[in-house]
Each structure stands twice: as C-alpha cells, then as structure tokens.
C-alpha cells in the first residue's frame, strides 16, 4: 500500500487531535482535499462538523491566492437589501485571470438564516457568503463553506444561558470558526511548547485566575500574540515561558 504524502499525514493527525478518531470516508475526503486543493487543517482551511467537511473563508482565499486570482468584485443586490430589517444580499464575481469573464456567486443573510452569535453583522455575513460561493465555483470546490451554514451545527455548543448573544467565554466557537482552545493546542504542538507554562502565561496575559475566566477578545489576542512570538523567535518565547515554570500551582483552563 502506497505511503500517504507528508501533508496528508499531518492533516489527518491534526484533524484527529481536534475532532477525535475520524471514519475512513472522512479521512479519504480529507486526503483528496489536501492533494487537490492543498487545504490545511492547522491553518483553519477546513472544519469537520456533524460528520461533514466544510471549507472556510480563509481557506478559500488561500486557494485563490495560490491560483493567482486577479480580483474579486462584490456589490449589494439592492432589491433584496433592507437595512432596517437587517436583510442583506450581495453578488460576488471572481476573476481567475485578466481574460476571465468571471464566476458569480450570491449570498444573503438575515436573522432567520444566521446564528445568534453574529446578530448585527448580517451585512458582513452576506458579503462573505457571496464571495465564498463565487470562489467555490471558480475553483471547483464542491464543499459547502462553514460561513454559509444557516445556524450553529449541533456539534458546536450554543451560548450559555445568562449571556447575551454574541458573547463567549473565549474558548468556544462562533459561526463555524475553529475554537480558540483548538488553535492554541495546535500552536503548542507545532512549536513544542510546555502546555502548563502556556496556561500560566495566558492567565497572566489576560489578567485572570484561569484562561476560562477571560473574555473571547482577550483569549483571541493571546493566541495571536503567541503565534507571532513563536513564528518570530521561538527561543525568546521559550525563555519567557520558562519564567512561569517556577509557579507552584497549575492554572486550570
């Protein structure tokens, strides 16, 4: 039996670290996506929700960039827009080359087909959906995009009671995007960081007793900071993390 390419093996490994053991058909589909479109789980290009793969907006943009897409034109479809009612519709056209006539896609969003987590952002959701559909047509990607989902998949936990829609404790996911905890775990594995030191650094960065108590904006900023520091100078980041190793108690997250 032929050995899988390294990119496929890494994708499968990352996917099963996040979503657990995958069925053979899901692994086969991921292998095809990896080979044909160079989609990466670690980069957040695809998500596995309710037993199905979904491509993400960042993943589609990376496909377009690698394919040297020359431009994307987006405009509202005025007859289907009502700002007072929060209803929006956009048309996007993707141009793969200077001589391409364009691949069009439409996207709409209102309170009836979006998650409560993105309430008030229907215009941006509609624009993103239009771009996603146009990109999927242009580059022959049959997967539905996560941003086109009408509501939260059942595998994504809804907001806890007592919190307003759109708020999160910083660990959960929103609108089909990867959980921040998953992103942080991927960074820890990728750069071989000490998880306990990272947890203590996170609590110190966010000014909370534990990462679980921090708001989503703070957690997102921390994940972004760690990613930048690790990519720029891993050795310096390790030195910083070592300063948290002397703390006797482990910060829970």
For this entry, give a set of tags.
Double Stranded RNA Binding Domain, alpha+beta, 8 helices, 5 strands, 253 residues
Summarize the structure.
With 253 residues, the chain is an alpha+beta fold. It has eight helices and five strands, in the order H-H-E-E-H-E-E-E-H-H-H-H-H.
Question: Could you describe the 3D structure shown?
Answer:
By secondary structure, the chain is of the alpha+beta class. It folds into two domains: 6-148, Double Stranded RNA Binding Domain (2-Layer Sandwich); 180-242. 42% of the residues lie in helices and 11% in strands. It has a three-stranded antiparallel beta sheet with strand order 3-4-5. It has a two-stranded antiparallel ribbon with strand order 1-2. The model is unreliable at 152-177 and 247-253 (pLDDT under 50).
CATH topology of the largest domain: Double Stranded RNA Binding Domain
Low-confidence stretches: 152-177, 247-253
As a whole number of angstroms, the C-alpha radius of gyration is: 20 Å
Taken from the alpha-carbon principal axes, the silhouette is: globular
What number is the mean pLDDT?
A: 82
Using the coordinates above, name the CATH class of the largest domain. Alpha Beta
Approximate helicity band = 40-55%
Spell the H/E element sequence.
HHEEHEEEHHHHH
Let me know the largest β-sheet: 3 strands, antiparallel
Distance from N terminus to C terminus (CA atoms, Å) equals 42 Å
Beta fraction:
5-15%
DSSP helical segment count: 8
Instruction: Give me the secondary-structure category.
Output: alpha+beta
Oligomeric nature of the chains: single chain
Number of strands: 5
């Amino acid at each position: 039996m032929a050995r899988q390419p390294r990119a496929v093996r890494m994708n499968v490994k990352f996917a099963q670290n996040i979503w657990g053991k995958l069925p053979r058909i899901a692994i086969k589909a991921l292998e095809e996506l990896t080979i044909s479109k160079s989609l990466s789980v670690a980069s957040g290009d695809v998500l596995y929700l309710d037993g199905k793969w979904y491509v993400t907006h960042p993943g589609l943009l990376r496909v377009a960039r690698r394919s040297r897409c020359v431009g994307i034109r987006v405009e509202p479809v005025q007859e289907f827009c009502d700002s007072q009612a929060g209803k929006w519709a956009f048309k996007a056209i993707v141009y793969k080359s200077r001589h391409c006539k364009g691949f069009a896609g439409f996207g709409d969003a209102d309170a009836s087909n979006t998650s409560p987590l993105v309430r008030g952002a229907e215009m941006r959701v509609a624009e993103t959906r239009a771009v996603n559909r146009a990109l999927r047509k242009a580059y022959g990607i049959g997967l539905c995009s996560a941003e086109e989902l009408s509501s939260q998949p059942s595998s994504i936990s809804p907001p806890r009671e007592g919190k307003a829609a759109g708020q999160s404790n910083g660990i959960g996911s929103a609108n089909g995007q990867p959980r921040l905890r998953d992103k942080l775990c991927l960074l820890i594995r990728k750069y071989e960081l000490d998880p306990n030191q990272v947890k203590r650094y996170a609590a110190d960065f966010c000014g909370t007793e534990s990462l679980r108590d921090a708001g989503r904006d703070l957690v997102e900023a921390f994940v972004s900071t760690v990613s930048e520091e690790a990519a720029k100078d891993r050795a310096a980041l390790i030195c910083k993390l070592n300063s948290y190793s002397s703390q006797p108690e482990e910060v829970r997250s």
